[in-house]
Write a structure and sequence with these properties.
The chain contains four helices and four strands. Strands 3-1-2-4 form a four-stranded antiparallel beta sheet, with helices on one face. The protein is elongated and about 40 Å long. The protein is α+β, with helices and mostly antiparallel strands. It starts with a helix and ends with a strand. A hairpin with a 5-residue loop joins β1 and β2.
C-alpha cells in the first residue's frame, strides 16, 4: 500500500511540473490570509463522477518570487478515500498550485514568506470527524 501511495504522490508531483494553466488574476498577496484566499481562487475539486469528496492537506513553501520551493507534500487525506479518490484530489491540488504560482507577493510578504512552510487545507466534505483521519 505504501508503494501505491508513493506512486500516487509522484504522479501528482509530475503533473505539478508539467501542467500549464492560467494564472489566477488576483491582487497582490500581502498577508498570510491573502495566501490562503489566493489559493482558494485556484481550487477546482474533481467532479463527483471522478472521485468522492474528501479533505486533503498539502504543505508547500515558496521562494521570494512566489514560485514553489522544493516539492509540495501531502500530509493528510480523508481515511475512507480510495486510491482513485486520492489520486484525483492530489492532481487537483497540484493543478491549483500550478494555477496560483508564482504567488504575487508584495515585497514585504516575499521576504516574510520565503522558505516558510504553509499547510494548505482543501476541504471538500461537510464534516471531517477526527476519528476517521488518515495521516500520510
Amino acid at each position: 500500500m505504501a508503494r501505491c501511495g508513493n506512486r500516487l504522490l509522484l504522479a501528482a508531483a509530475v503533473l505539478l511540473l508539467g501542467v500549464a494553466g492560467a494564472k489566477a488574476e488576483d491582487a497582490q498577496v500581502n498577508t498570510i490570509q491573502d495566501v490562503f484566499r489566493h489559493l482558494r481562487t485556484c481550487w477546482k475539486p474533481p467532479p463527483p463522477a471522478k472521485a468522492r469528496p474528501l479533505d486533503i492537506t498539502v504543505v508547500v513553501s515558496f521562494n521570494r518570487a512566489g514560485n514553489i520551493l522544493g516539492h509540495p507534500r501531502i500530509t493528510y487525506e480523508s481515511a475512507e478515500a480510495s486510491d482513485n479518490d486520492r489520486l484525483q484530489y492530489r492532481i487537483a491540488v497540484m493543478e491549483a498550485l500550478q494555477r496560483c504560482t508564482p504567488m504575487p507577493f508584495t515585497d514585504a510578504m516575499a521576504g516574510a514568506a520565503a522558505g516558510r512552510p504553509f499547510a494548505i487545507q482543501f476541504r471538500n466534505r461537510k464534516t471531517s470527524p477526527p476519528t476517521q483521519e488518515r495521516r500520510v
